[in-house]
C-alpha cells in the first residue's frame, strides 16, 4: 500500500500512532519504536504493509519512504508538511475517502517540483474547495449577504467578505475572481500569495 503521512502522535515508549492518507481511505496504524525502523514524518509518502493485531488498530510494518525530487529543499518541504498536517483535522471523521484527495496530492507533488511551493499549494487548495462545493464564485459577503463589487477580504476557506464587515486583509477582487475561475495564481504578487497562505493555515 502507498499513502501520505498526515499525522503522527507519540504514545508510550516512543511508539507512534501514524495516520496515512491512501487512495480510498484514511488509515490509523501503530508504529513500534525500533532502531532499525526507517524514519517517518508528516508529509512523507510511504509504501507499507499492515499487520492485524489483537488491538483495534493495525501495526505499521515494512515501511519504505518514497522520495520526492525536492525532498531536500527545506523551504518546499516545510510548506508541504504544514499543508499536509491540515488534512488530518479536515478528513479525520470521513469513513470513505474519495480518491480525489490522493490524486490531488500526487499532482501537487509534481507541481511543487516545477513552481513556487506556495503558489502550487494555493492552486491545489482551490481544487479541494471546488471539489467539495465550497468555492464561492458568487462573491456574496458572508456577513451582510450583499454582493461584493470591491473592498474584498477573504476569511477561512477563502470565503469572500466585505473588508468593511470583517476588517481582514484586503484583496483585489478582479485578481481573486481570476484565481477562483482559472485556479491559477500566476497573476498574484508574492505579498498576495503570502496573505492567501496565512488564510489556508487557519484550516482547510
UniProtKB/TrEMBL annotation:
InterPro entries: DNA_rep/recomb_RecO_N. It comes from the Bacteria. Pfam families: RecO_N_2. Residues 1-71 form the DNA replication/recombination mediator RecO N-terminal domain. This is Putative RecO family recombination protein. The lineage of its organism: Bacteria, Pseudomonadati, Campylobacterota, Epsilonproteobacteria, Campylobacterales.
Amino acid at each position: 500500500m502507498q499513502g501520505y503521512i498526515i499525522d503522527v502522535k507519540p504514545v508510550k515508549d516512543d511508539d507512534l500512532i501514524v495516520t496515512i492518507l491512501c487512495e480510498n481511505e484514511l488509515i490509523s496504524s501503530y508504529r513500534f519504536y525500533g532502531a532499525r525502523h526507517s524514519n517517518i514524518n508528516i508529509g512523507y509518502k510511504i509504501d507499507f504493509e499492515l499487520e492485524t493485531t489483537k488491538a483495534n488498530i493495525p501495526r505499521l510494518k515494512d515501511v519504505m519512504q518514497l522520495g520526492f525530487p525536492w525532498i531536500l529543499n527545506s523551504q518546499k518541504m516545510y510548506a508541504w508538511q504544514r499543508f499536509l498536517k491540515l488534512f488530518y483535522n479536515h478528513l479525520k471523521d470521513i469513513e470513505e475517502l474519495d480518491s480525489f484527495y490522493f490524486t490531488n496530492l500526487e499532482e501537487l507533488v509534481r507541481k511543487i517540483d516545477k513552481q513556487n511551493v506556495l503558489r502550487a499549494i494555493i492552486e491545489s487548495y482551490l481544487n479541494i474547495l471546488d471539489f467539495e462545493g465550497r468555492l464561492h464564485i458568487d462573491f456574496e459577503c458572508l456577513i451582510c449577504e450583499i454582493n461584493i463589487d470591491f473592498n474584498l477580504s477573504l476569511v477561512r476557506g477563502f470565503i469572500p467578505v466585505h473588508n468593511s464587515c470583517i476588517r481582514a486583509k484586503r484583496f483585489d477582487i478582479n485578481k481573486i475572481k481570476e484565481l477562483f475561475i482559472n485556479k491559477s495564481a500566476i497573476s498574484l504578487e508574492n505579498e498576495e500569495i503570502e496573505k492567501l497562505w496565512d488564510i489556508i493555515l487557519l484550516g482547510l
